[in-house]
Amino acid sequence: MKFRLLLAAATCLALPVVANAQPVTGPYIGLGAGTSIELSSNNSLNFSPVPGVDINISSHNNYRPSYAGVGYLGYGFGNGFRVQLDGDFIRNTRATGNLSATITQGTQSFSSGQSGNVKAAGGEDKYGPMVNVLYDFSVGLPVYPYVGAGVGYQWVEYNSAFKVPLANGVTVGGTKASFAYDIIAGVSYPLPAMPQLSLTAEYRFMQLTESRNYNLNFPTSFLRSRFPTKVKVGQESSHTFLVGLRYSLFAPPPMAPAPAAAPVAAPAPAPAKTYLVFFDWDKYNLTPRATQVIAEAASDSKTTKVTKITVSGYTDTSGTATYNQALSVRRAKAVAVKLMADGVPASEISIFAYGETHLLVPTGPGVREPQNRRVEIVLN
Asked: What is the mean pLDDT of residues 53-76?
């Protein structure tokens, strides 16, 4: 139920801005550190010290806020979606809790009630891999929200000692594992001086889906002979808050400023070779044909005397002028990234974006014209 509610909330937040994804292109790495708030969980054990008598002891565990860290390696597809492999470490420190016992003899049952003064030292260490899928948004601000979800596997090392009468010296320990899922919501801020580096602030909800049995250790052989050796720990949930840094390993060159108008007529330029890369409506991801054209342009730039390569993005007239201008930037950057991947030096590439101006096929407003959804590569 928790998973469905959180997923529905994340979906509702995403819908208003889903058309304005902020792309992260190529591989990236990141680190985050912060605090973890473990929700209370339940322990239980059942045993029969003498024939005919059954005892069930359950405890409700509370935790203090502790520390957490995560490192990750990811890949952005340039259309807002990212896939990410995380490795996390979460420390949870035990605090006070409640303890209750039920004794059953034949058909009669007796309950001890609850004690609010059960103390325990130690806690648990949680660590493991998670695979997450995330989506970035552009909301017209210098920060970029994102949401995500994923699954993985978590090991939980338990190390706890009771501090109550009749139980001093009793410890619970061991390392067990469980499948897990998480929900992520965060925001990133690209640093103006270094656009490949972004500050991040992130919230994560994690749920362990399985119960686990840990070793129950007693200080004397007499107690070990009368009591069970395992204690069952129920499912666990935690809230984690992180701040960190994310670094894109491969970024497109910065967009060049629009050329200033020449005060006098310039002499006729040397013959230039032009390549046209076309896009689907409202898209900036490259089609197979587009990658072929870009590869041809990259190859020709190496065999001819080229001093400058201009990459200019355009759109048709459907959509608003503001949205089309941003879309033409994304198209131009997508082509520039592919040129670099095909061996063209970034220093030779200049990027321009013209939105719905300079139409290849003149149309009125609101017209979806395939020939106008293009990027022009010009070798000079």
From this structure: 81
